[in-house]
Amino acid sequence: MLDQEWIKLIIEAKQLGLTIEEIKEFLTQNSNRDSQVLTK
Predict the structure, then answer these.
(1) Nearest-angstrom CA–CA distance, 33 and 36
(2) What is the C-alpha end-to-end distance of the chain, expressed in Å?
């Protein structure tokens, strides 16, 4: 099941004019950053 908060955030990003590719890139970049913080 999808998290409703994530769905809301993605819809808002689309309404602001972001493409799916931009959203994916943002999530990937921040996921990598979060992983680095957790492993330090």
Answers:
(1) 5
(2) 31
